Amino acid sequence: MEELTLGTMIAVFEEIFGRALFWVMVAAAVAITAGYLYVLIRDRRVSWRKYLVAQIAMIPGAIAAVLFVQQVTNSGFRDLGGPVDLLVLLGVAAMGAVGAAILVYTVQSLIWRPEEDQALR
Amino acid sequence: MSLNRRQALATLMAGAALAGAAGGEARAQRIETSARIVILGAGAAGAALANRLSERLDGAVITVIDPRVEHWYQPGFTLIAAGLKPASYSVSRTTDWLPRGATLLAEAVAEIDPEAKTVTTESGVSVGYDYLVVATGLVLDWGAIEGFSLDLVGQGNGIGAVYASPEHAAKTWAEMDRFTETGGRAVFLRPATEMKCAGAPLKYAFLTDDYARRKGTRGRSEFIYAANNQSLFGVPIVNEKLRMLFERQEIGVVHDHVLKAIDPGAKTLTFDTPGGEETLEFDFTNVIPPMRAPEAVRNNSPLGWQEGPWSADGWLEVDRATLRHVRYPEVWAAGDIAGVPKGKTAASAKWQVPVVEDGIVSAIAGTEATETYDGYTSCPLITRVGRAMLIEFDYHNNLVPSFPGVIAPLEELWISWLMKEVALKATYNAMLRGRA
């Protein structure tokens, strides 16, 4: 890369996914993150029960992200060739894990109000 | 609790850091001009320049001359010929990439007269210019190979031609797929002329080897790479690495072999060598012909090198740093046509385009141009499906890695493959639009 700026990166991502899909994905990510912040502020605390379920979702999230990347790039675990490849793999897994956790936590919080959460205990 | 909040915070901070980085990208102010700019060729370099110049200049009359209806993403040909992408992967329309501010004249150029500052098309239309960008690309001289015709490709005879077109790359895949089912002798080669992406013939040898191994036919196959000279690659350190990899993959090498003729019936290739003609039998091959400047530039213009190694093939005589013509200062070259020691790749075009843009805009504004090109070329050298070496180098045969300490240039890595598969076409498209 000659110059790696936000403008360049956005241009590249628009080309990868198509302009519409890319911005839909950005909007979805923003909406989920906003929803997450909303429930945190609304409830003024983290529900450990929901957090536990969210943590469980991290495992399938991580695996799904790795398999997705391998699928769309015609590659597999055997192609890992150096330390940086392992970091990329872990990074993809981490993103899948965190994404899944935030999604699951937010969805739970939006479905069950904190009072119901109390009642469930 | 703090964990997820901290992660959310980290995400926000990363976003802010990126936004900060974008601050340096402020566009220079548009310059008012009525200059007539003609760009010959709407390929990677031509389209990118049309977009960048129309963004920088206000009122310029920009004419792009190119008869081709289709735009081909040529870095994708290898992936098509490896069965990983359909032919349509590399095909778009020329008009998809040109800015509203430029006029497309869909005709072939017949003649360039830099004394009169006019370009004449094949139908006789004459277009005058104040500034000319020659970005015609090059021609593949298939006729130079005796006995060869593009009709032979993909007829079940083991003859491939990845360079010819997306369709021919797909047909070559059909041949390679069939060959690697049965095994036999595969012969790979390259021309003795300057060529686009000198890594592509090597990649294709590696990919064929990979498929043969996956299908279990490598044991009853012989692989030969016929190099045109004493080396496999022009950059010594890369050459040495490739020698080692070929040895590991049991790909035999014969040197100083330049393809002269093909006999599709007898399935033989005839090479010119220092010791006379030599013939090799093949079950599968990827024919790559000599490459030269198009007729209009080579024979119907005085723009090519007048002497030296590049004069015969008509490459444009430009300063290797500024890409400005040495005899006609209102002429620039961008892309494959430039008569410079390195760089007939899309990556080179990406680096050359801002230099030509700066040269023309500075000439119009009456200021000194500051951007220079140092021969940057990049080659994601695929060594099998799933791995590549991200090789980047310059005029001086130095490695110039974009991600030093992170992506090692001479290591076969998954990340380099991911970049080729996912990010390269996107970056290329962004470049065409003048955005990368």
Strand percentage of chain B: 15-25%
Order of helices and strands of chain A: HHHHH
What is the general shape of chain A? globular
Total beta strands of chain A: 0
What structural category do the secondary elements of chain A indicate?
mainly alpha
In this structure, how is the largest beta sheet of chain A organized?
A: none
Q: Write the CATH architecture name of the largest domain in chain B.
A: 3-Layer(bba) Sandwich
**Large-scale geometry of chain B:** globular
Can you say what the CATH homologous superfamily of the largest domain in chain B is? Answer: FAD/NAD(P)-binding domain
- Protein chain pair with the most extensive contact, residues per chain: A-B, 42 and 42 residues
N/C terminus separation of chain B: 40 Å
Derived structural class of chain B? alpha/beta
Largest sheet of chain B: 5 strands, parallel
Assembly type of the chains comes to: heterodimer
**In whole angstroms, how far apart are the ends of chain A?**
53 Å
- Low-confidence parts of chain A lasting 5 or more residues at pLDDT below 50? none
Whole-number average pLDDT of chain A? Answer: 87
The first-level CATH class of the largest domain in chain B is given as: Alpha Beta
Output the number of helix runs of chain B. Answer: 9
Whole-number count of domains of chain A: 1
Q: Give the C-alpha Rg of chain B.
A: 23 Å
InterPro entries (chain A): DUF5368
Organism (chain A): Histidinibacterium lentulum
Keywords (chain A): Membrane, Transmembrane, Transmembrane helix
Transmembrane segments (chain A): 20-39, 51-69, 89-112
